[in-house]
């Protein structure tokens, strides 16, 4: 699906931020010099350049308290901080459960007895605690060879705020288990000043993301990862988000007779799905920072000496949180919603797109007529902060080639679903609407397989095509959120060729949830 952004609007809105320092409002380039190789690495992962430079300007302080304990602190240009303590406890043993072994056999991470807790503290900071067990086979040999008995006293452990020892670490008496190390990981993210990096704020606004509290490093990370659409993490969370959207629609409109008669079902199920969405946002932000830090741990001079331990810690935490997202957060949301029947979208109107091309060249004339007729309805997606398409389409293309006293006809046909094949955005900023003259934009494109026939060769078959069932349109909404119009554009131009593209649309949208 082609997902577009309102680039011109973003440029207009960002003009007022153009004088802000690339690394934030609180710091200066002198206070927070940008690690240029790291910024390049972040940009290569799909981040906007100013977001990449903001992250690459963070100050890094690392201390290896003893052979088993790493303390890591990031200070960002806006004053936000992220403090991490990782304690490895070697000489442990753990016997995986049957469920854990099955997950690993299916390709899951070989990390066991995972525990996760998160709490908002009185000072506004967020504290996350992770505990898990890593077999010796999963510990980098260079790190494993350095581990020894901890020299820290109980008071030292309290001072650096280590969480409880994990159950895996305590399970040293479990016979027949794997030898390895318990890992206790605690991180605290503290709020800084308002973030002043223009394109991040503009892109977040453009997607409908909240921008009022991006001083919290986890909120900033969540927004940055959502905008960095090329990131695998963003794609993964996008899939989960679409599933949660579908679960919430099902919970709000149950089809099962028992759930329909239970007045407590819908409020409870919707609340569970929304809780899952909020928890995914938090976990996603920690994973984003982990992945960025794993990238930088071998590049940044301050951490290169300890890159083996840090890279292992960031990778383990990302793997455990990814597994937790799928097998705990998403699993509990799925269990909370009784499945609905096959979705029958409410179709509010039709879209018709026709292309005509007349292309004479020499003694031959090629004439192409293509029609796509769609019955489209729109559903609001809390994940993407825009409407996504539902419904169906029918596609037909007829090419006639006339020359040398003979006419040949080539045909393509296809029909199918518009599910997630289009996006519609509505803009509510009066100044922007007045400036650009429209308050909605939409487009739709999908990949499909067509059946084709060629009467001259007598052959037929199937072929992949890209169908633009809704070329980019814009307009002003009418009463009842009605959207209708006709758009005519020249098509198939060049040489003696001529043609038109005509798009007609008429539909409405439901309210945003």
Layout of strands and helices, then pairs:
Blueprint: H1 7-14, H2 36-44, H3 49-56, E1 59-66, E2 69-75, E3 81-94, H4 98-105, E4 112-120, E5 126-135, H5 141-144, H6 154-159, H7 167-170, E6 178-190, H8 198-206, H9 217-227, H10 232-252, H11 257-261, H12 265-297, H13 301-304, H14 307-336, E7 349-361, E8 364-381, E9 386-403, E10 406-417, E11 422-426, H15 430-436, E12 440-454, E13 459-475, E14 482-490, E15 498-508
Query: How do the helices and strands follow one another from N- to C-terminus?
Result: HHHEEEHEEHHHEHHHHHHHEEEEEHEEEE
Output the structural class: alpha+beta
Low-confidence runs: 1-27, 150-176, 301-305
Instruction: Report on the biggest sheet.
Output: 9 strands, antiparallel
Shape: elongated
- Rg from Cα: 28 Å
Total count of strands:
15
Q: What is the CA–CA distance across the termini? A: 22 Å
- As a percent range, the share of helical residues equals 25-40%
The number of helical runs is: 15
Mean pLDDT: 81
Question: What percentage of amino acids are in beta strands?
Answer: 25-35%
């Amino acid at each position: 699906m082609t997902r577009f952004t309102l680039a011109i609007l973003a440029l207009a809105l960002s003009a007022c931020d153009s004088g802000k320092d690339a690394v934030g409002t609180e710091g200066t380039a002198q206070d927070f010099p940008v690690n240029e190789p790291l910024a390049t690495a972040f940009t290569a992962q799909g981040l906007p350049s100013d977001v990449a430079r903001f992250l690459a300007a963070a100050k890094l302080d690392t201390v290896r308290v003893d052979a088993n304990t790493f303390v890591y602190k990031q200070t960002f240009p806006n004053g936000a901080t992220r403090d991490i303590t990782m304690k490895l406890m070697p000489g442990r043993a753990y016997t995986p459960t049957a469920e854990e072994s099955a997950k690993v056999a299916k390709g899951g991470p070989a990390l066991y007895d995972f525990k996760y807790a998160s709490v908002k503290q009185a000072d506004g900071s967020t504290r996350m605690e992770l505990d898990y067990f890593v077999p010796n086979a999963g510990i980098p040999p260079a790190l494993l060879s350095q581990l020894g008995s901890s020299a820290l006293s109980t008071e030292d452990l309290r001072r650096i705020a280590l969480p409880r020892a994990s159950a895996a670490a305590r399970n040293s008496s479990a016979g027949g288990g794997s030898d390895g190390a318990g890992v206790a990981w605690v991180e605290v993210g503290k709020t800084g000043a308002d973030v002043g990096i223009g394109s991040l704020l503009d892109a977040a606004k453009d997607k409908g993301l909240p921008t009022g509290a991006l001083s919290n490093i986890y909120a900033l990370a969540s927004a940055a990862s959502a905008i960095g659409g090329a990131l695998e993490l963003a794609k993964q969370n996008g899939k989960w988000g679409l599933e949660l959207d579908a679960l919430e629609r099902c919970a709000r409109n149950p089809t099962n007779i028992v759930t329909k008669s239970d007045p407590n079902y819908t409020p409870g199920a919707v609340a569970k799905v929304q809780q899952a969405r909020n928890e995914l946002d938090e976990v996603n932000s920690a994973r984003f920072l982990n992945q960025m830090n794993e990238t930088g741990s071998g590049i940044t001079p301050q951490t290169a000496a300890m890159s083996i331990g840090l890279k292992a810690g960031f990778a383990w935490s990302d793997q455990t949180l990814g597994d937790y997202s799928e097998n705990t957060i998403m699993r509990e949301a799925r269990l909370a919603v009784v499945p609905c029947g096959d979705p029958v979208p409410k179709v509010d109107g039709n879209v018709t797109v026709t292309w005509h091309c007349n292309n004479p060249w020499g003694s031959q004339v090629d004439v192409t007529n293509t029609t796509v007729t769609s019955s489209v309805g729109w559903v609001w997606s809390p994940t993407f902060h825009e409407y996504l398409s539902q419904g169906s389409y029918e596609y037909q293309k007829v090419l006639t080639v006339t020359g040398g006293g003979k006419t040949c006809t080539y045909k393509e046909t296809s029909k199918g679903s518009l599910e997630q094949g289009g996006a519609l955005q509505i803009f509510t900023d009066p100044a922007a609407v007045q400036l650009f003259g429209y308050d909605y934009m939409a487009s739709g494109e999908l990949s499909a397989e067509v059946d084709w026939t060629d009467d001259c060769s007598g052959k037929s078959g199937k072929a992949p095509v890209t169908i633009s069932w809704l070329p980019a349109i814009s307009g002003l909404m009418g009463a009842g959120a009605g959207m209708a119009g006709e758009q005519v554009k020249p098509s198939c131009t060049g040489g003696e060729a001529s043609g038109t593209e005509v798009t007609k649309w008429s539909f409405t949208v439901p309210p945003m949830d």
